[in-house]
Design brief:
single chain; 11 helices; 42% helix
């Protein structure tokens, strides 16, 4: 037997993950000192979360510790499953150190077990779209984790993630921008368009002034780069900014009328870093 594993930082909707048969590890976030586990939207109050951020709630994220990973993975090792864990970018978190320690201990205890981890070098639905595509491939190849790993390697640089942050102060909170620059940028209506680069890190794709120019740039990038790949949908996500999501969806539908376009909220683990008002697009291309 073999299984695919992901975590909720991949942001696949809970019904999609269930339909694909993927095992999901919940990831934690904290609101005003109370820790919660993201459930891929099943019972998440997105409006309340982002309203809290706008009102000044203290939000943060953290990784899982070694004992939690051991508890999660032990039953699969005991059952003799071949395991392929499709993970978000290792450049974005230190959670993979305790994971590696837990797996090392379990492999000593279960020496015949087979475990592989694939680094998607991506976040949010950039990782999620790869889980989606891998799960389809996995089902078609008889659950071969090695063949699925090789398939993931063939598409890892074909997944584009671009997003626009609504309020720069949230980037300042995360240390990606100084508070002074964030304040000045907001006054000037600066809108950096960010993306996940080939190394799996967030970087600035371009800087424009004004929300309309930012969306026009995102749509233009999509028009020049989008390539349908293995039935993958186009995802448009938003952090409590339904109007912007709808505007972008309309523009993308004009550019690629045959594309399946899926819209959904940005989850609280990702949203804690980018803040309300952020929107983004995830799609396949010849290269990032």
């Amino acid at each position: 037997m073999s299984i695919l594993v992901c975590d909720t930082d991949c942001e696949l909707w809970y019904t999609t993950a269930a339909e694909l048969g993927v095992k999901v590890i919940p990831m934690p976030y904290t609101v005003d000192g109370v820790e919660k586990m993201y459930d891929l939207g099943e019972n998440t109050d997105f409006k309340a979360f982002y309203a809290g951020m706008r009102a000044g709630s203290a939000v943060s994220t953290s990784g899982l510790n070694k004992s939690v990973y051991t508890e999660i993975f032990r039953p699969w090792f005991e059952a003799g499953e071949d395991i392929l864990y499709i993970a978000f970018s290792s450049k974005m978190s230190n959670t993979f150190e305790p994971l590696a320690a837990a797996i090392a201990d379990l492999e000593k205890e279960f020496p015949k077990a087979r475990y592989r981890k694939f680094d998607t070098l991506n976040i949010c639905l950039g990782a999620g779209i790869m889980v989606y595509m891998a799960a389809k491939f996995f089902a078609g190849c008889g659950g071969d984790i090695d063949a699925t790993y090789d398939y993931l390697e063939s598409i890892v640089q074909k997944v584009c993630v671009q997003f626009v942050v609504g309020d720069l102060r949230y980037l300042a909170r995360g240390g990606r921008l100084s508070p002074a620059k964030a304040r000045m940028g907001n006054v000037l209506q600066a809108k950096p368009v960010l993306h996940v680069d080939r190394e799996g890190e967030i970087s600035v794709l371009t800087k424009v002034i004004g929300a309309k120019k930012a969306m026009s740039f995102v749509a233009s990038e999509f028009a020049s780069k989008y390539r349908p790949t293995d039935g993958a949908p186009v995802y448009i996500v938003g952090a409590d900014c339904d109007d912007l999501v709808e505007q972008l969806k309309e523009r993308i539908a004009e550019i690629a009328p045959a594309a399946e376009i899926v819209t959904q909220p940005v989850g609280p683990v990702i949203g804690a870093h980018c803040g309300p008002g952020t929107y983004g697009i995830i799609y396949t291309a010849d290269e990032r």
